[in-house]
Amino acid sequence: MANFQCETQNGETHISAVILDLDGTLLNTEQATKGVLLELLARYGKVMDREKEDKRLGMIHEEFAMAIVEDYELPITPSCFSQEIMSMYYEKWVQAKALPGANRLIQHLHKHGVPFALASNSRRKSIDIKMSKQQVWREYFSVILGSDQVKSGKPSPDITGVKAGKAAGMKVVAVPTLQNAAEKYSIADSVLHSLLEFRPELWGLPPFEDWVDNALPIEPFYLKGSCRSGLLYQPSDSGESPLPDQDFGLYFGWAKFDTHEIMVVASIGWDYGCCTCKRKIQIHLLDRSNEPICNPQVQILLVGYIRGLTNEESKAGNIVIPEEDKSIARAALDLPAFGYHTNLPVSP
């Protein structure tokens, strides 16, 4: 979440400071630790209830520990549970990567002298471990505040979050971790799929200056799998996509099928079922030659971002990419700012 502290001068509202959440907003800690609770419960012969745990996101640690011990009838105290799971978390947190748009936003706010702070429901020690590989962030934040440094956690205004931000009279932008639970954030002033969709100028902040002819250079990322009927099927032992939930929208880059290297636009979204929400990645080949592609195995390097998906596109079974977006991708891939395709077929 991003909360904006506002001031009114001469009848106009101005943003005086920004408060950012950490888990699921800036760092992909939730995906890095996804199997930890499952593993711990298995030690005691318990099976994790995914739906119930999704509802626990955002709880302060002490409440979380007590709820887990009670709900699963574990033969240990909340304190013992806390010690066990925290040692497991510590090993995983240091592997957490910055989420799409996080570095960009932090650098932008710092560059323009906008005061910004970090407020998290995590304990301060946990925050320091999670951010151990993000030293620049630590230098840029005006304040870093953990749940053990305030009297009350979310949704109290003492700490950040959607309800907390609204309770404190702030403007709130939500970036849900669970994309099928966006309705839970309806009280936010804006709900985004990714920080890449964030437009500072809509909030009275300086606009981003890193767009190159309607295309945004991003930190390159790889995809691989089998391409069938335009859809990418990624290998995964758990059946879940390795991408962060916040990767969403139209991206472009290069795909390699055998010896064929082809420009592509990739639409990354979600397939919403009645009870499930699965990754949907559709690959659109640009300027494909007439030579047939026999092997469906593909490696993809995405180097740029065009825009988010419209509501109609995100619900469509088959997305048709407008010619304007294809033209943007073709033009961008000829520019030095997007010249990463020589890295194929190296895997990350």
Automatic annotation (TrEMBL):
It comes from the Eukaryota. Coiled coil: none annotated. Keywords: ATP-binding, Flavoprotein, FMN, Nucleotide-binding, Transferase. GO terms for biological process: FMN biosynthetic process; glycerol biosynthetic process; riboflavin biosynthetic process. Pathway: Cofactor biosynthesis; FMN biosynthesis; FMN from riboflavin (ATP route): step 1/1. It is an enzyme of class 2 (transferase). Residues 247-308 form the Riboflavin kinase domain. Pfam families: Flavokinase, HAD_2. One of its GO terms (molecular function) is ATP binding. Its EC number is 2.7.1.26. This is riboflavin kinase. The lineage of its organism: Eukaryota, Viridiplantae, Streptophyta, Embryophyta, Tracheophyta.
